[in-house]
Amino acid sequence: MGDFMQLGARKPRTKIRFFLVLLIAGVIAAGFWLALRRGPTPVVELATDRPAVGKATTVTATFSEPVHGLGGIRLELIQGDRVEVLDRRELTRGSLVPWSRADGTAEIALTAVVGTTTLDWLDDGDVILRATADRSVGFLRRDESVVAERVLPVRRRPPRLELLSSQHYGQQGGSGAVRYRAGETAVRSGVRAGTHESLGLGLPGGGSDEFFTIYALPWDLGDPAEVRLFAEDDAGNRVEAPFLDLFKALPARVDTISLDDAFFDRVVPAIASRTPGFDDSGTLLEQYLLINRELRRAELDRVAELSRRSEPAFLWSGPFFQMTNSALKANFAQTRSYLYDGREVDRQTHLGLDLASTARAPVPAPNSGRVVFAGWMTLYGNAIIIDHGYGLMSLCGHLSTIETAEGDQVERGEIIGRSGATGLAGGDHLHLEIFVHGQSVDPLEWLDGKWIQEKVMAKIGR
Ligand SMILES: [Zn+2]
Q1: Are residues 226 and 187 in the same domain?
Q2: What is the mean pLDDT of residues 327-331?
Q3: pLDDT tens digits for range 51-80
Q4: Cα-to-centroid distance, 396 and ligand 1 (Å)
Q5: DSSP type of residue 244
Q6: Is residue 11 part of a domain?
Q7: Cα(289)–Cα(347) distance, integer angstroms
């Protein structure tokens, strides 16, 4: 009986405890529910196509909240007290109905072009780019924003550019050197000749703003107004200045080469079999044209690629070395008209010197440097490319044997191979080609010690 009474007395207390537990459970559940309703934090990212603002910098802000979506997005630019809304968009507004669910925002972007061309009030200094994402509003959901910011410098003027060297006489297909001063905001500078660029580097022993470049004037560039010294900054501001005092066009040199089946039989299958993916379905003439056009271009692209990794050092000195007792058989920038069965089938420009001596004559390294390629180069046959530094490279082609290897340091005049007739060669000879920043230039200039002294070394004060 006593037990029964006790139980009866505890009944209301148990009830209170039961409701308390229920309440706590309810609060916890509501907390979970709230967290789920609010969804993940929106992702806001800012990207620009340049690290600075000049005339025109493209800004892209991307926003995403894939669960509950975003209420609105905004892209702003701030300088001083001025806030410019570049772009904005209202998205889902949510609902006060607790079980409503806004659609998620997978990824949405706002893009704007900022710079002095669109915002004339911009001043030198910094700007803040701000991207804001508002969450979609709903029951028990706060309208909380997520902000991403990025500070960028504004540069309204291009870098300073001053010519330091003088008396620049250029020749079509030739080379030269120039010394100049570029302001501290310059990130790229050098010489532009048409579409070709010879990028400058810091002058050894010079001040921090002194640069130089050994430049190429392409053999097919006819307008000296297209030869300019330039400097640009990271905001895309660019300054150009003419610097050539004289420009000489190359005399037209045309040569005809007769092709026949005996020549095709000797050279085409030999190249085709060593070229992976070569299309040998056509006639020998068609295959020959494929080598002379497409593969020629591909090999020149390969040299241009190698030249971008040229060592920033003078690895060479003095005039370039011509193969001993050799006769000049074909010149630089000689246009070749290829005849087959009496009609012209192709026209290409020869961009090196053809030097003939005895068969399998020893081939000397044209100058000191490092071997960056030693192997098969389709129309050049067995070839060696030497990097002489600062964008200057030489190529020896049609070799019968290679007596050096990639990575080797070679001295001027050191024997690196034997002449031959591999690749597209009519007979045993050495094809010597010189490249300045990947562009073929006249090797005769580089064989001339006086020219090197006056037109290169004197210009850069060495
Ligand atoms: Zn040649």
Answers
A1: yes
A2: 89
A3: 999 999 999 999 998 877 788 899 999 999
A4: 9
A5: -
A6: no
A7: 10
pTM (2 d.p.): 0.83
What is the band of 1 on the pLDDT scale with cuts at 50, 70, 90? very low
CB-based contact 333:248 (threshold 8 Å): no
Count: domains in the chain: 3
CA distance 38 to 138: 9
CATH number at residue 432: 2.70.70.10
Cβ neighbours around 238 below 10 Å, total:
18
Q: How far apart are CA 189 and CA 350, in angstroms?
A: 30
Distance 320 CA to ligand 1 centre (A): 17
pLDDT at 41: 84
**Is the domain of 419 the same as that of 278?**
yes
> Separation of 278 CA from ligand 1 center, angstroms?
22
Q: Which residues lie at CB < 5 A from ion ligand 1?
A: 352, 354, 431
Residue 295 identity: L
Confidence of residue 32 (pLDDT cuts 50, 70, 90): low
Rounded to an integer, the average pLDDT of 376-388 is 96
Provide the residue type at 460 as one letter: I
Co-location of 273 and 349 in the same domain: yes
Q: Which CATH number characterizes residue 226's domain? A: 2.60.40
